[in-house]
Amino acid sequence: MILDRRTFIKTSSLALGYSLLPFTNIYSNTGQKQIGVCLVGLGNYSATVLAPALQITKHCKLTGIVTGSPWKIPKWQKRYNLPDKNMYSYDTMHEIANNPDIDVIYIVVPTGLHAKYAIRAANAGKHVWCEKPMAKTEAECQSIIDACKKNKVKLTIGYRMQHEPNTRTIIGWANSKPYGKIKTVRAEIGYNVTNPAKTWRLDSELGGGAMYDLGVYALNAARYTTGEEPISVSAKQMTTRPEIFTETDETTYFTLAFPSGAIAHGKTSLGKSMHELYVDCENGWYTLAPFSMYAGVQGKASDGTLLTIPVRSQQAIQMDDDALAIINDTPVMVPGEEGIKDIRIVEAIYKASKNGKTISLG
Ligand code: NAD
After folding, report:
1. Catalytic residue at 88?
2. Please, which pLDDT band fits residue 199 given cuts at 50, 70 and 90?
3. In angstroms, what is the span from residue 46 Cα to ligand 1's centroid?
4. pLDDT range class, residue 27, cuts 50, 70, 90
5. Does the active-site annotation cover 90?
6. Cβ proximity of 127 and 153 under 8 Å
7. What is the mean pLDDT of residues 46-60?
8. Is the pTM of this model over 0.90?
9. How many angstroms does the Cα of residue 275 sit away from the middle of ligand 1?
């Protein structure tokens, strides 16, 4: 039997047990190989951040959309020159399986829906990029990982900070420890949302609340700053506006203990603006402030070292890193296994806050 190239690659990669799906035949103006990305959910993050970033990425480009709001389609088609055949609804998105223009399906819907659509994307045989937080529960995260493994597609979580160059410097310091042993980490992220409309971010079922929405940045930072996994967690949640935050947390405090003895104090709120990561070590300190905003991440250290690499678009860097992992068939920088670790701790934070006890993370 003679196999064509596409069938041969697919068959042999399945036999070898790794992902090497043939990818789209798209090239940039400069002759650069690019993969096709389909955004699922055309809300604020897709419309104002990801789609514009996909216009400046080198290794990937926007080729399709999935939306439940058909009235958005003409505007998106016109702005991004998207053909009719690459327009999908949530009900038809499984048909992307037959669309060679699309290599990656990027899930950008409310957190409580990530698992549903990420699994649908994996079952369509496409690589999956899933926004943070990965899902609502550890079980949901595992089901996404399992679906991607079963379909032999790559899975990456949209933790843009792990691609940001100043942040990457301090991720490296977790290992090299230029200021000595880490004693404490303080990670604080919040926005003063003065008039929150009724959105999914206030809906517990859909994965709302400060800890899921913003707290994962502080939690992830505590883990990448120390390079360790916490062994226990205690937490406290409160709201000053119970009439608005009827189902979800407005503010969450959490404390993590790490095997080395380092302690991380995290704080997140939808009622207060704060954006600082501070690391106190035996022989000095360093900080990133802001550490999690889309732009302007910068820092300094006790010896005068400055962390000020400018970045045009964190999301473009993130998507190019993730596209290259597909093109070169190399490991992704932020796999599903990273996302599930945070969600396991997030679940423990809600439990610890409820019962007032320190929870061992074993
Ligand atoms: P949004 O509310 O602006 O958009 C959500 C989209 O999902 C909308 O298009 C909406 O129509 C669609 N949707 C589908 N089913 C829905 C349902 N049942 N209820 C509500 N909406 C539904 O939200 P967003 O700010 O774009 O956030 C989307 C995802 O992106 C979330 O997971 C969020 O955590 C993530 N996000 C990540 C970053 C980042 O910096 N990495 C920033 C913002 C948002």
Report:
1. no
2. confident
3. 8
4. low
5. no
6. yes
7. 98
8. yes
9. 21
